[in-house]
Amino acid sequence: MSVWAIIPAGGTGERFGGAKPKPLTDLEGKPVVVRTLEVFAQCACVEGIVLVVHRDWLKDYQDVVLIHKLKKVKAVIVGGDTRTQSVRNGLAFLGVAADVVMVHDAVRPLVTAGIIAAAIDAVKITGAAIAAVPVKPTIKGVDPKSMTVTETLDRDLLWEVQTPQVFDRKVLARAYAEDRDGATDDATLVERIGVKVSVFMGAYTNIKITTPEDLLIAKAFLQQTMA
Ligand code: C5P
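# cytidine-5'-monophosphate complex -> structure
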């Protein structure tokens, strides 16, 4: 079974600010994206990695891949205006090269080999599987105009979805071929074509670095694992 990873890193980081895109930001001595790529590169089961980046930063990402000797990164390609378009470009580049595709956000550097192994076990059974964790807070729907509560959701039924999201390549390709509206994750497109998506346990430490305080949290987690 040939497993490839697509790592979307093509965002501009509007919610983050800063001079560089988030994936190029330093996290305890290495760029965020390098930490992410190293975890996938060190997994024997991963055959190759396609890194999808913002057009304005292509050279910077190419340099980072070379400097850190990330040989499993087989291509650095340009993404699109949305995450969906960036992953679509990654899939198009892959063609029929892979049996299984893992999609993982560049800005989740605290993913572990254990989570990747769990992803591969899960996809073998179902063909579509996502990492997630049960939500800890109470979540309410809020009407943005009146700023009043519209509903309180049953916390026991809610899971926060993460990446990696892992799919039989043919299933993911069909979901992308039929997609018209995009989505904030890949599983949504697969759900829309009627394929059941299974859930496996991610980790509360597998955070997405979105805003500056997330970087502080990631540093704290990393310092703990490096101690
Ligand atoms: O925007 P969001 O937080 O959902 O981004 C998740 C991942 O998708 C990030 O790693 C980001 O760089 C990537 N992305 C992308 N192309 C875009 C927008 C986001 O590859 N146009």
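# post-check
DSSP finds seven helices and eleven strands in the chain.
The chain has a mean pLDDT of 96.
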